Amino acid sequence: MYVKKSLVVLCTVLVFSSAAFVDNIPKCSIKDSDCQRQSLQYVIREASKTGIPEVQIAPFDPLELQQGIDIPIQDIVQLHFSDGVVKGLGKCLVNDFVTKIEQGLASLDITCNITVKGHYKANSSSPVIKSLLGGESVHGDGRAKVKIEKLNLKFDFNFYVEKRDGETYFKRKGEKVNYKYDVLGQVQFAADHLYLGERDASELLTNMLNQNWRLVMQSVGNNIMKGAMGTVEKFLRNFYDNIPTKFYITEDLSQYASN
Questions:
Q1: What does the alpha-carbon distance between residue 206 and residue 195 come to, in Å, rounded to a whole number?
Q2: 189: Cβ–Cβ under 8 A, 6 or more apart, which residues?
Q3: Domain residues for 168?
Q4: What pLDDT does residue 251 have?
Q5: How many domains does the chain have?
Q6: Are 186 and 214 in contact (CB under 8 A)?
Q7: What is the predicted pLDDT for the residue at 9?
Q8: How many Å apart are CA 129 and CA 17, to the nearest integer?
Q9: Are 48 and 36 in contact (CB under 8 A)?
Q10: Where residue 37 falls among pLDDT bands split at 50, 70, 90?
Q11: Residue 134: its pLDDT value, please?
């Protein structure tokens, strides 16, 4: 009996806390882009702390990376990054957010300062290592950190309005979100237990990465972003596919619903 009552209380808490979240989302006209920008800013800031349990959105600042990432750097060093934690997503700045309901197109411009920490393994026997640094190989197994300042992300995705059970929802078209990114600040690397041959060269090698971070990002940026986009796509899908538009749009969108 105690367990049953406890489960009832837990479910009640979840339902009311979830309802409180959606009830507090600022509502906007579908034609008011600046209001929608501010509303999305609120959702990102608050959901990053508490999540939105009723649509399976967990808190995401900090965010634990569920899968490892293999990162080849210019065919010189192979990195495997695992057990990573990302910090800073909840403080991302929404620069612009536009929904064109007649065209079924949404675009988002956002800037983030993020830090990724985790376990890494590295190895290389590239001839470039010997010619540049005088060592036979690079290898490492330790902790690493990547800090990206002013990571600017721009997304475009198609959507349509669906009506079910008397409510309207935004539904994404397709499985992928089109995106492009740029680093408007700089990238800083740090790592320990990084060796050149048998010599600890952590400072030497991370300094080299920091001095050439733009070249490094050209090589590894797409791999990193592919992993990050999985989180973005899941957030968009769970939020828009499951929360009725009445919680964040003032107009009745029934006239736009697809047959």
A1: 11
A2: 144, 145, 146, 206, 209, 210, 213, 216
A3: 2-256
A4: 96
A5: 1
A6: no
A7: 34
A8: 55
A9: no
A10: very high
A11: 61
